């Protein structure tokens, strides 16, 4: 029960070059900003778009192979694809929508089963426009499950929901996925969703897979600039390596001590640090501690966000503190001491 | 007064609309699915709309007449197309076809592609998708096309008179009846048929408007989702 994908595709000004493999019945998250080729990848797997070359294998069955000239129709691929806006047929009732994907003879039994499973009782004769966003998603999932696909692909499953509803729908989907013993591709630009749902994460940037690794590795030790940005790190600077343990952060204008640089194929070109990993301290005695000037202060719901600069010409850093730890210092123009813990620094390739 | 032109006209227009309805739908589907020659084929299929009907009639005459290959073939099984009632149907079908074809194509293009993609991944057959998804979703537009085609078939004159002639009780439609009446100085009859045609056309236009409004409402309701 696994999926292997290795495809290349070129459209006007867009180039997709994607290669990854999922493990047994695993939930693989595909994290990428909008327009990076996430949906295109899913469409290639579903057979809606045709890659220029490559190979797609699902559970040992070749879906696409440019060398062997195999290109199964979407109907023959048997993949479940949850579209961003669910693509429920607007002229069909809930029941008819679910029936559309059923291949077995005994439709009635099958419909009832999925109506029950997705809590759609009493909604059978409604039209999609008469349903809430969460109900629509349940119908879309019921319809997909009724077609008994070998893999489930979710394309930004919560993008059409407002934040209040989102949490509830997320929990419902988590429940469904728990019982689902098949491969799942979960595509999103939202790091939190991906973190909550997936075991393994593929980072996709500008049509290229940056890395495929476990969720912890991606979030706690990102390897590339794109991965770091996608996992929510806000501060990045280009670097100049001085020696094995010292670097200059060019844009920030400071010199940092870092954990011993490993011999790597690719030399790191950037450094990154999360805004809440930067600590406020009383003086500049410790290693990696510098005096910064506060240039901007933004009050958030639960925290304060400060933009700070080391010198006039260096680019600003973003620092974040929970409100309860807040002292009165930190108004615009104040000078504060900030410490960059070695463990919080990511060294990144471009 | 001889009412046969009214019945011949309506019978012809109904049959021609039915034929052109299916031909138009399938042609629209076929052309949309094609990669090559799309523009050229579209032009050929739309030609009867822009050509003078007499030119269409002239070509149909060449195609189905006694000296043509098809005409001779039909003659062997004792069928003569030219100057028969069937000829009025053929003329009306050909002239009305582009209206049906164009409107259907336009209506198909309005259907959100994601519905088709979703249906495909769900395993629905292409034929099932065509009827249950594409046609169903573009139904108001298709109905409008059928009404337009009916109106065109009902008023058809040039191609009909070339291919089917103007034989009272057999191939004489309302349009050709007016022509005959004016030619023989019978203004009253001409007025009556003109009035009937205006009345029918008006009803058709009202139906059209009704459909367009319905379509707008449907689209509005869908975007509410």
Pick out its properties.
heterodimer, A: 350 residues, alpha+beta, Rossmann fold, OB fold (Dihydrolipoamide Acetyltransferase, E2P), 6-stranded mixed beta sheet, 5-stranded antiparallel beta sheet, 9 helices, 23% helix, globular, B: 225 residues, mainly alpha, 11 helices, 0% strand
Structure description:
The complex is a heterodimer of chains A (350) and B (225). Chain A contains 9 helices and 21 strands. Chain A is an alpha+beta fold and 350 residues long. Chain A folds into 2 domains: 3-221, P-loop containing nucleotide triphosphate hydrolases (Rossmann fold), CATH 3.40.50; 233-348, OB fold (Dihydrolipoamide Acetyltransferase, E2P). Chain A has a 6-stranded mixed β-sheet, sandwiched between helices. Chain A has a 5-stranded antiparallel β-sheet with strand order 2-1-4-5-6, with helices on one face. In chain A, β4 and β5 form a beta hairpin. The model of chain A has no long low-confidence stretch (mean pLDDT 88). Chain B has 225 residues and is an all-alpha fold. Chain B has helices spanning 4-33, 38-50, 53-64, 69-76, 85-110, 113-121, 126-137, 139-154, 158-163, 174-183, 187-223. Chain B starts with a helix and ends with a helix. The chains are: A alpha+beta (350), B mainly alpha (225). Chains A and B meet through α2, β7 and α5 of A and α6 and α7 of B.
Task: Walk me through the topology.
The complex is a heterodimer of chains A (350) and B (225).
Chain A: E1 3-11, E2 14-21, E3 27-31, H1 38-46, E4 53-58, E5 61-65, E6 70-71, H2 74-77, E7 79-82, H3 94-99, H4 107-117, H5 133-146, E8 151-155, H6 163-179, E9 183-188, H7 191-197, E10 200-205, E11 208-214, H8 215-220, H9 225-230, E12 235-243, E13 246-249, E14 254-257, E15 270-273, E16 279-281, E17 289-299, E18 303-309, E19 317-322, E20 335-339, E21 346-348
Parallel strand pairs in A: 3-9, 3-10, 7-8, 8-9
Antiparallel strand pairs in A: 1-2, 1-4, 4-5, 5-6, 10-11, 12-13, 12-15, 13-14, 15-21, 16-20, 17-18, 17-20, 18-19
Chain B: H1 4-33, H2 38-50, H3 53-64, H4 69-76, H5 85-110, H6 113-121, H7 126-137, H8 139-154, H9 158-163, H10 174-183, H11 187-223
Helix pairs in contact in B: 1-5, 1-8, 1-10, 2-5, 5-8, 6-7, 8-11, 10-11
């Amino acid at each position: 029960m696994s999926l292997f994908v290795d495809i290349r595709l070129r459209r006007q000004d867009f180039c997709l070059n994607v290669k990854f493999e999922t493990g047994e019945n695993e939930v693989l998250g595909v994290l990428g900003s909008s327009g990076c080729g996430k949906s295109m990848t899913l469409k290639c797997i579903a057979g809606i778009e045709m890659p220029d070359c490559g190979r797609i294998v699902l559970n040992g069955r070749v879906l696409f192979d440019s060398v062997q000239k195999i290109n199964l129709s979407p109907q023959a691929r048997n993949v479940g694809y949850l579209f961003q806006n669910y693509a429920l047929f607007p002229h069909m009732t809930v029941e008819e929508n679910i029936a559309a994907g059923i291949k077995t003879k005994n439709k009635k039994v099958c419909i009832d089963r999925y109506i029950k499973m997705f809590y759609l009782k009493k909604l059978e004769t409604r039209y999609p426009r008469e349903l809430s966003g969460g109900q629509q998603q349940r119908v879309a999932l019921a319809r997909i499950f009724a077609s008994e696909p070998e893999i489930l692909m979710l394309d930004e499953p919560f993008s059409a929901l407002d934040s209040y509803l989102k949490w509830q729908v997320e929990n419902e989907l988590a429940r469904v996925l728990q019982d689902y013993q098949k491969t799942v591709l979960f595509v999103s630009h939202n790091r939190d969703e991906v973190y909550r749902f997936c075991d393994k994460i593929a980072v996709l940037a500008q049509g290229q897979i940056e890395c495929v690794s476990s969720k912890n590795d991606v979030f706690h030790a990102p390897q590339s600039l794109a991965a770091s940005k996608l996992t929510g790190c806000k501060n990045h600077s280009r670097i100049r390596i001085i020696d094995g343990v010292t670097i200059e952060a060019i844009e920030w204008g400071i010199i940092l001590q870092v954990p011993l640089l490993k011999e790597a194929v690719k030399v790191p070109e950037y450094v990154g640090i999360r805004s809440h990993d930067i600590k406020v301290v009383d003086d500049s005695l410790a290693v990696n501690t510098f005096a910064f000037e506060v240039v901007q202060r933004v009050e958030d719901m639960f925290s304060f966000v400060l933009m700070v600069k080391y010198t006039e010409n260096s680019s600003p850093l973003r620092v974040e503190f929970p409100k309860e730890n807040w002292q009165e210092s930190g108004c615009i123009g104040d000078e504060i001491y900030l410490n960059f813990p070695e463990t919080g620094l990511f060294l990144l390739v471009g | 007064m001889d009412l046969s032109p009214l019945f011949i006209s309506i019978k012809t227009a109904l049959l021609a609309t039915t034929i052109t309805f299916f031909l138009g739908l399938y042609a629209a589907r076929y052309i949309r699915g094609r990669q090559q020659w799309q523009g050229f084929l579209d032009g050929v299929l739309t030609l009867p709309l822009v050509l003078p009907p007499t030119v269409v009639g002239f070509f149909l005459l060449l195609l189905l007449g006694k000296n043509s290959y098809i005409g001779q073939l039909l003659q062997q099984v004792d069928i003569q197309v030219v100057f028969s009632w069937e000829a009025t149907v053929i003329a009306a079908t050909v002239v009305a076809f582009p209206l049906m074809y164009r409107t259907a194509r336009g209506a198909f293009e309005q259907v959100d592609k994601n519905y088709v993609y979703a249906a495909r991944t769900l395993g629905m057959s292409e034929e099932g998708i065509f009827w249950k998804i594409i046609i169903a979703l573009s139904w108001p537009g298709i109905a409008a096309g059928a009404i337009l085609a009916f109106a065109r078939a009902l008023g058809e004159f040039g191609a009909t008179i070339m291919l089917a002639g103007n034989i009272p009780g057999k191939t004489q439609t309302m349009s050709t009846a007016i022509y005959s009446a004016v030619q023989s100085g019978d203004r009253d009859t001409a007025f009556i048929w003109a009035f009937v045609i205006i009345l029918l056309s008006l009803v058709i236009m009202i139906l059209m408007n009704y459909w367009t409004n319905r379509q707008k409402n449907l689209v509005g309701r869908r975007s509410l989702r």
